[in-house]
């Protein structure tokens, strides 16, 4: 395996009319890395991936995948990239085995030759091999799509939102498969709108409005959270949310499941003091049973923070 | 080459997997051919005739009898006055009214000249024309007979009773029995092959676009030419089969003549199909949804068929329309089919037309390959 980056994109710009779907995007994916691109719908993830898999020409900038230029070396590259589009894109009227065989044949190979590569996924799919792809469950469809993307033994996987619309158990299984492939040395670039999946990647980029806001290891992104953060629980969560947002030092307040995550704008105060101040404030606002605890930021806190900063900028 | 083979195999797999599609492909042309050949006819069955006979003599009765005798006309009513007749025409109860005035026989005998009136519903112009000419023929035949048998009165020949100075004898070549189906069935066969081929191909690539499978295909090393070729071949083969079924029905059920060389028919068909299917594939590359593709395909089919000389003779169209029709592949293939099957024409007659179709086929295929993008929107 070479030391060249698996993906090396520099200053990619792609416009649709007046909108820049990609606005000066640069990124590097290292060999054997599981790289996540996290962002809401419409942030430009699909456009970025389409440029990387030679389906879309960039207006500006350049990208090399596996050391090959996505514009000039596209034929060489297409044989080496495994791509899963965001929408399920296999033939619903063909069976599981037929779909797999068809895509293998287009790459001038056979399913048997790829047996070892697809084995971990195939064991789950095999029992459905005669079933039509259109009749599979959401999770099984995605596993079949992954199989089809792997059937020509690509040197890199580029997966556009492979877990969107898939149930929680299947999502976990799917990520298990991805990490297993990564462990075998296959570089993977994957996008997802689910922030909780970011923590499963080696490195992630947060994408919004065609720009990459931040790129780092998930733990590093959590650690770099710049302000004190608190979890607030109480009976009347909605009331608490309103009250906390009116607190003069509030930087942000977001509902997180049962609780609220409150970020204080002050960097010079000690967390314990802020907590005491807060509980006095909410009590005076009429919320008796509220509990306030300083917490370490999770990846979602960090992303919410960067995204609100991005919007402000 | 292997890639094309795999793509073609997949295409066949998909076509034959869906039983309703298979039924549509094979049943619809058969049913349409059987039904349309009987429906789309210029042959006039019996014309419903109302007679207002104010004369009521043997001569007037003989006239009516003569009209009925040709089986062209059937007297469905007798009426005493023109008013009833007018209403019957309005109600489409009858197509024609024969008015024999009083003193018809008397006039004939005395003056050797008498008037009859034939009123036609001429809403359908060409049909009315045929009825009129049929009626005129019968009436003048009768008049000629009468002039020989009636007692001589005053000698003053006028009008239709005078022997014609010209003796026109018509011979019907190529279709001596004037069997309308011999003329229409080959053309209908062209129409059906065109419709099926164009609709199937026009939807096909658009369907892959809608399914998202096109995106998955586009990242494979498959080339544009391979893709278009693999889309063309299955429908080309299918269309050959459909045509053959249709031709067999034409021969067995309608007894269409096959005077020319069938090899020539198939040579022309093979070339013609490339034009039609290439056009369908081109439509498929410029549309985004199957619905759009269907609309465009229907538009093209309608123009092709109406300006193809199938139902209406091209000679009666304005010059500009005839010029446009020259670019219509249906027109040329209908010409080839009718020439070879009905008239027994050979390569010397249809050769250039086939070459023209081949050039068009090549052009339209290149257009489809060029227009098909291996890129996302």
Amount of helix of chain A: 25-40%
Strand order, main sheet of chain B: write it out.
2-1-3-4
Q: Whole-number radius of gyration of chain A?
A: 23 Å
| CATH homologous group name of the largest domain in chain A | P-loop containing nucleotide triphosphate hydrolases
> Structural class, from helix and strand content of chain B?
mainly alpha
Taken from the alpha-carbon principal axes, the silhouette of chain A is elongated
- CATH structural class of the largest domain in chain A: Alpha Beta
The average pLDDT value of chain B, as a whole number, equals 83
Architecture (CATH level 2) name of the largest domain in chain A: 3-Layer(aba) Sandwich
Largest sheet of chain A: 6 strands, mixed
The counted number of beta strands of chain A is 14
* H and E string of chain A: EEEHEEHEHHHEHEEEHEHEEHEH
Q: Can you tell me the CATH topology of the largest domain in chain A?
A: Rossmann fold
The global form of chain B is elongated
| Intertermini distance of chain A | 40 Å
Oligomer: heterodimer
Uncertain segments of chain A: none
Structural class of chain A: alpha/beta
What is the N-to-C succession of helices and strands of chain B? HHEHEHEHEHHHHHHHHH
Radius of gyration of chain B: 28 Å
Low-confidence stretches of chain B: 154-165
